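Minimal example, chain plus heme C.
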Amino acid sequence: MTSHAVPSRTRVLVLIVGAAILAGAPGRAQDAASGEKVFLQCKACHQVGETAKNAVGPKLNGLFGRKAGTIEGFSYSPANKNSGITWDEATFREYIKDPKAKMPGTKMVFPGLKDPKQIDDIVAYLKQFEASGKKAGIGPAGKLATVQQ
Ligand code: HEC
């Protein structure tokens, strides 16, 4: 019998606490609050939320899971309308890094977000908004809270 062996229950606890601290460390997780600041770069053209209207660009409620070019009442370019894209995290990340590369001919005049952290944060921010513009309220922070209990 080795006297220095840590009882396994204690070891499991240490692991759980360690993971919670890592996940909660600032700047590591996707961050909807920081995403709101990133969205300032989009706000000249896009709106989100319950009162959102189409402007220079279409409203961005309920983005993930819907087909590109399908917001009613917005006049899309053929490039967007016929892109065949369904917005999910992967397609959106590629697009927002360099919109004209992902979608040649788009009329979105935006050079793209080059900082991967900004892309993480804008994804977290936009994911909050359901198609109605209401906030779903189960962001990464919500999941984190359950893990930490
Ligand atoms: C200068 C105006 C402008 C800015 C700034 C801008 N956009 Fe756009 N965006 C547009 C326009 C216009 C379209 C429609 C493009 C088309 O029809 O080709 C568009 C389309 C989109 C679409 C596709 C929507 C759909 O329904 O298929 C997404 C997603 C999007 N923008 C996200 C963003 C995000 C996120 C930002 C900020 C990081 C941003 N845009 C900044 C003008 C802009």
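Residues 17-25, 142-149 have pLDDT under 50 and may be disordered. The two ends are 35 Å apart (CA to CA).
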